[in-house]
Amino acid sequence: MIVTESRAYLCGFFTNPAVHRKSDSVRQLPSGWSEVVCPPNAIEEMKDFYYSDFIDFIAGSSAKEGVRIFERTIDRALSLPTGEGLQPFTVPAIRLYLFPFGIVVFSVEIRHREVTFDALVSVLNQLRNNCYYDLETMSGFIEFVIGPLCEVYERIRGPYVTTERILFNGEKRRGYPFLMENGNKFKLFHILVPETYPQSSGKVNILLYEAATLSREVSCNGDDFMSCSPEYFESVIASNKISIFNNWKALSLFDTFTILSGTKQDYLLTNWEEDYFGKIYLYGLFRKFYLFRMNTLFRREGSNLALLKEEFILYERKYCFPRVSYNFLPLEIMKHITLALDIDRDKEEMYHMLEQENQQREEIADRKMNNLLFFLTCLTIFSTVWDLGCLLDSMYPFELAVGSTMTGFRSVTSVLLLVTILFAIFNRMKKH
């Protein structure tokens, strides 16, 4: 099968643990990056369809509390070996998205035209597998794309260390795992237009699944050991497929978001890039990456849990938008992305840990209060015993009664304390 056009975005992220203000990261960017600012009239137009707070946050309008977007033009024609020989592709640009709390997301735009399906998935598989880069065949991609990203990482976060891997056949690979802190592959947002759009829903589902999982053509219903089981295939299609119009379908998975389009009209593809990817998918990635980092820090010994809790409350209040749009379609896309990225589960884990932290703090506070009350009770008992001893001594002088004031006080104190202890024991047994 021939793919007429493919627009793919490889996404990764890393954090700047030292700063939480975007301006600090901006000052550290190397040369060659220019800020992308959305014009005010475009911002106002977007607010006709999306909630105002969401647009102020995600649209790169240089809002004080929103994301800031920077772009570096690449405009390079590169190629990678596939089973069908060298396959050319272009890299128009890479972008940085500087989110609050030191979350740095980047995207690498990859474009193909008139390419076979198997060659396309072969190239994307090689590009997104950032832990196993072939230094010989991927030298151009490493130089023009990975190099600038590593430079940004070094300026913002500090020195980095690549990894060296040796495959089973002895070939060496170099990895850049620090460019994707919570995984060994880049996330992928992919729009592809096949030359012939499948007519039956069954064939659409198969092609959509193969594109989303970057599997070779017709491998989905194959009988070799790497083919997926029919049960898993049906489960994924049933729970993750987005089917609203007849001219396109989408599949939202944990690692990929794929749109299979029956039209190559440029305005429609651009709309998906700017809205589904540029707003909704990036917002989903920000939430996923932030919650991943927070869950990690909460479990890390030595973390300042009070500050983390305060930060998480700020994140929930200012950057969690239960609704992003007035229209149903963006909400449907966001619902599937949230489900696929397992964001709600990450939030539940955070709430669970916060609840445990609150319970632990309450238990510690209760123990301290009980110790204080016990101390005050002891003081009260001793004061009462002393007062009773003094009262008895004034009524019946101990020196005359028992021959010694000290002996009298000791006797009274012993008797009263014994009575108190016996009463406490009796009361405790009665409760049980």
Brief overview:
The chain has 432 residues and is α+β, with helices and mostly antiparallel strands.
Number of DSSP-assigned strands: 11
- Tally of individual helices: 13
> Runs with pLDDT <50, length 5+?
none
> What fraction, in percent, of the residue positions are helical?
40-55%
**Structural class of the helices, strands and pairings?**
alpha+beta
In this structure, how is the largest beta sheet organized?
Answer: 9 strands, mixed
From the N-terminal CA to the C-terminal CA, the straight-line distance is 78 Å
Estimated radius of gyration: 33 Å
Average of the residue pLDDT scores: 86
Q: Based on CA inertia axes, which overall geometry fits?
A: elongated
Largest sheet strand order = 2-3-4-5-1-8-11-10-9
Q: State which percent range the strand residues make up.
A: 15-25%
Describe this protein's structure.
The chain is of the alpha+beta class. The protein has helices at residues 22-27, 40-46, 52-58, 117-128, 139-156, 201-212, 230-240, 266-299, 305-319, 328-340, 343-395, 398-401, 405-431; strands spanning 2-15, 34-36, 68-82, 85-98, 103-116, 163-166, 172-175, 187-194, 241-245, 248-252, 256-261. It has a nine-stranded mixed sheet, sandwiched between helices. Strands 6-7 form a two-stranded antiparallel sheet. Strand 10 (248-252) and strand 11 (256-261) form a beta hairpin. The termini are far apart.
